[in-house]
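Researcher: Final request for today, and then I'll write up notes for the group meeting. The sequence and the SMILES for pyridoxal-5'-phosphate follow.
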Amino acid sequence: MANSKEIPYKIYLEESEMPKQWYNLRADMKNKPAPLLNPGTMKPMTAEELGQVFCKELVDQELDDTTPYIDIPQEIQDFYKMYRPSPLVRAYCLEKKLGTPAKIYYKFEGNNTSGSHKLNSAIAQAYYAKKQGLKGVTTETGAGQWGTALSMACAYLDLDCQVYMVKCSYEQKPFRREVMRTYGASVTPSPSDTTEIGRKILKEHPGTSGSLGCAISEAVEKATHQEGYRYVLGSVLNQVLLHQTVIGLETKTALDKYGIVPDMIIGCAGGGSNLGGLISPFMGEKLRGERDYQIIAVEPASCPSFTRGKFAYDFCDTGMVTPLQKMYTLGSNFIPSANHAGGLRYHGMSAVLSQLYHDGLMEARAVEQTSVFAAAEEFARVEGILPAPESAHAIKVAIDEAKKCKETGEEKTIVFGLTGTGYFDMYAYESFNDGKMTDYIPTDEDLEAGFAGLPNVPEDMM
Ligand SMILES: *Cc1c(COP(=O)(O)O)cnc(C)c1O
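Model: Predicted protein-pyridoxal-5'-phosphate complex:
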């Protein structure tokens, strides 16, 4: 019997067992995510309008709410084989340390040079840009993982890659920047004087350390003002979530091989792409009424989009140049407190996950950063991997849940996403190790300021 097999520390798949199609969860959603709106007309964005900013095939994927499976082009499958399948690890050592009867598994996406899951979508987006005959792409990066992943993908496909990097990260993470340049990307600290919106933001907020929303505005402007360029985004969009389903599909195949059925699936949520990708096949079963799972999104208490945000139409960027998306949001001008070191700083959330959360199909928890770094270190010391602070949000809640099982004696099976490694986050670890890290939870007044900036959208579009 499959489930009497001894479970190895690492469950690897054969190359032949890797997914050949991405799974489009939207096809199984009864309540589809709301359409993107044109902020000028308040009408749904057409493929033609989106095509001015994004590559054509990616626009088709963005708007496709009905096709359940989408073929992964062979060239992308081949690229995936360089660093996938990623291992599904049984955290035997952590279980022992915690003395829990829970069975803990994590899907580790940090085994590539970019250090995170972001390469799964970067290669897909670069591939479609190349196929369309473009010269290059522009993007933003916060902590730097997305910019690194995209520069790797662009180098492979011989595309120009222009990255706007949030200024504080640009200064705090010079090595990240240098990795991108090593792969041939050009990196500009944002806000910059290379775009109109950047100059405007600099004038209004001199000395600002930048934000993701602001870098997005600059990258979009740069793409639309250069012949042969399009903009690409590393999270939030439906297409990104689609590409990231390779995480969940591999996880499901690996679990099925051993007859393992998880009770609980946990992931960190910034813009929602890794979590969306991890849970998609499981959520699909849940939506089709085949099986039930407890699904938990974990976010920073200092940037609590799900747990304290509003479900409303909002801009995806600070400069208000992007389409409006209906999502859980803190307002496009929300910037997390400067002492926040753990990533996941985006003000909004994937439209797909927002709808699922709104419909009660998943839960969310907000955790404070000192508890996240404590969990990161506990994990690193027994499982060996130095986690990215983002990933450590999921670790924190997985450990909490495993400790609850110790109290109740329940042998729950917990699966969580370990999205990446933290080698470039050592200033944050240093601040934690020195006891200097503090927690900041925004007050209701802080949040009201963000909500006040939400655009007015006609009732019938809400
Ligand atoms: C970007 C990133 C995240 C958060 O982004 P999502 O789109 O929410 O997945 C989480 N972990 C790591 C390591 C990242 O680089």
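Model: The pocket of pyridoxal-5'-phosphate is lined by residues 116, 118, 145-146, 235, 268-274, 344, 388, 390-391, 419-420 (CB under 6 Å). DSSP finds 19 helices and 15 strands in the chain.
Researcher: Thanks, that's everything.
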